[in-house]
Amino acid sequence: MTDEVKQCDPMRDLVSMVTTDEYAVFFKGLPVNWLGYPGSRVVGGYLVGYRMTADRCVALCKLYNSCHAIDFNSVDGSCWVHTTLQNKCGAPIPTNHVYHAKKPPACGNLFI
User: Model-level pTM greater than 0.90?
Assistant: First the structure.
């Protein structure tokens, strides 16, 4: 028996998942061409701070070429950065109050 890998359709998933003010506010702050995944995180990020805003977390990632993606936790304001393509394209894990966002380009068949 093989495990089926679910592919994400970013636009469909954002429309169906962005249902709270918390995620709607964050999504409006994403830079052009970034992909956002509300309610999910990816393993392998490095903690860079607490009590941050979503905009500051994204801005921090934009400053460094080595940052490929972020996970932002809206409860404690923690910002986690992903510095490898392997981490950026890891399988999403459903997680309340966390928003995964990544810089372009997308990850192909791994995790769009």
Answer: no
